[in-house]
Amino acid sequence: MAPSDATGPLSPRKRGISKRMVRLLLSLGALVIVVWVFRITILQRIGSFLIRTDATCKADALYVLGGAPLDRGSFSSRVLDEGCVPVAYFTGENVPQSFKAEGRSVTEADLGRSAAIRAGADPARVLPFPYGTSTWEEAAGVLRHARNKGFDTVLVLTTDFHTRRVGKVFHQRFEDSGITVLVRAAPSSEYDPAAWWTSEEGLLMVNNEYVKSLYYAITY
Q: Can you give the pTM of this predicted structure?
């Protein structure tokens, strides 16, 4: 039998595979180039998708969710000054680790209220409501509280990248309650939402929020 010629022409099947590989590599290369050219726009849209707020702010009360007490508490003072609401309640029963280490039982609700007062809010208009260790629990607590108070509309304040998930959770909890839920975003002092990927805090915030959104979608 004559030996095969290793340097001979490729079979039609092998030529077809080679052409497909070339096309695949060219397509991947083009995709990489497009992503790189439009990377800023893509990253901005990844972040902006998480932000969903309501234009109107008129409500019977403001509920400032636990977490990021400096940003949310300080911004709540501005919301009160704007005349959006007559009173603000601060939720969150978690005690930060730093306070636990000192043996101090200072809740997120206490911290947010303190930040609001330092920002100029009238202490009589900012009240603690230390309930809830998660957004789901806070929404349940706010619903009961709003019903007891006879509120028709509530304004919920959280950090910007949390607004879409928070709005979804609260609307789900308040469904058929007859109470309207509005969501307001407090800007963060630790990252720029238009360039969140340029700081560690922004990267962590966006990553964690997408993970939380997936968890809430699966769990609730």
A: 0.85
